[in-house]
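Today's session is about reading a structure prediction critically. Students often jump straight to the picture, but the first step is always the sequence itself: look for stretches that repeat, for charged clusters, for runs of hydrophobic residues. Only then move on to the predicted structure, which in these notes is written as discrete structure tokens rather than atom positions. Here is the chain we will use throughout the hour.
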Amino acid sequence: MGVIEGNAAVSDNDWETVTKGGDDAIKKWIAGQMDGKSCSIVLIGAGTAGRKWINYEIEQSWNKGKGLLGVHVHNLKDNDGKQSYKGNNPFNGFTITQNSQTIYLSTIVKVYDPPFTVSTDVYKHISDNLAAWVEDAVKLREKY
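Below is the predicted structure for this chain, in token form.
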């Protein structure tokens, strides 16, 4: 979207090249993507929750003290002009322990679901708000 400075989009071809190098190459690539960043944004589609590398990124981000946030993207159109189904919250599968209490990460990390169904409106809403959501996620993370 060009909203977050220094954040370049990853193409399917880039990801395919990385995955050909195996798990260690993927971990190295993810570490490189996180390097110098204060927050990780999980774009939540129909098949996001529970995916190995999404989970790895969430775990690494949290363990490195980075802000985390999720954004539902089910109402954005894909390359074929189709909208997908709303995905599950990927943070539901993670817990932290604080003051001897187990807390689900999904109760801490904010997940945004744009209140529109028209793709262009959803895109604009995300674009208009993403920078503020990132700032909020970074501030929130400082509390844990």
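Discussion point for the tutorial: Residues 39 and 66 are 5 Å apart (CA to CA).
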